[in-house]
Amino acid sequence: MPKRNKTGYVRLLAVVASLTAGICPLYAQTPAASLDGLSQKPAVVSPITQPNLSPGVIMLMELEGRFAQAVAEGGGRAFASWFADDALTLNNGQQAVMGRAAIAARALWDPKVYQLTWVPEGAQMGPSNDMGFTWGHYEGRSKDQNGNPVVISGRYITVWKKMPDGTWKVALDASANEPPEKGECCAVPKP
Q1: pLDDT digit string (tens) for 55-106?
Q2: Which of 21, 63, 85, 175 is the most exposed place for a label (fewest CB within 10 A)?
Q3: 44-62 pLDDT tens trace
Q4: Whole-model pTM?
Q5: Domains of the chain, start order
């Protein structure tokens, strides 16, 4: 491994932190402080706390942060705009949806009515640097017909692929329920 210039490396970390803080404030804070609104507090991958992250992982995390910010501001329309033409969604308990047009036809929520947020916990870049994935925790907030808050949450994985024009698009978005509480994995159901 090449020897790193400590001053240059610290400067790089400062630049990454300042750039990602506006996109994904998690990088500017400690994980516990930044996730107060979420039911779980995952360990967040950060170039500040884990300086050995590859440039590909940092890029995917930054990309995921921009995706989350766009959806928080633009709702379903923004969500669908991030997908490749041949993308696929696999959401817990629902049929697979294939293709950006079909995904867009189902992603009709207004961010004022339904707020989808997520927190990336990690990423991996493939060896050819043209495909990778991010994963983490998501939360959806809305209100029922009586005005009572409704919160759904779970785990997600986003598979990213580099397009011929150099941009990155979502190839696969999948979600699942939260894992069982510690110790409840194999417990016998209670009557």
Answers
A1: 999 999 999 999 999 999 999 999 999 999 999 999 988 999 999 999 999 9
A2: 85
A3: 555 566 667 889 999 999 9
A4: 0.71
A5: 6-177 (3.10.450.50)
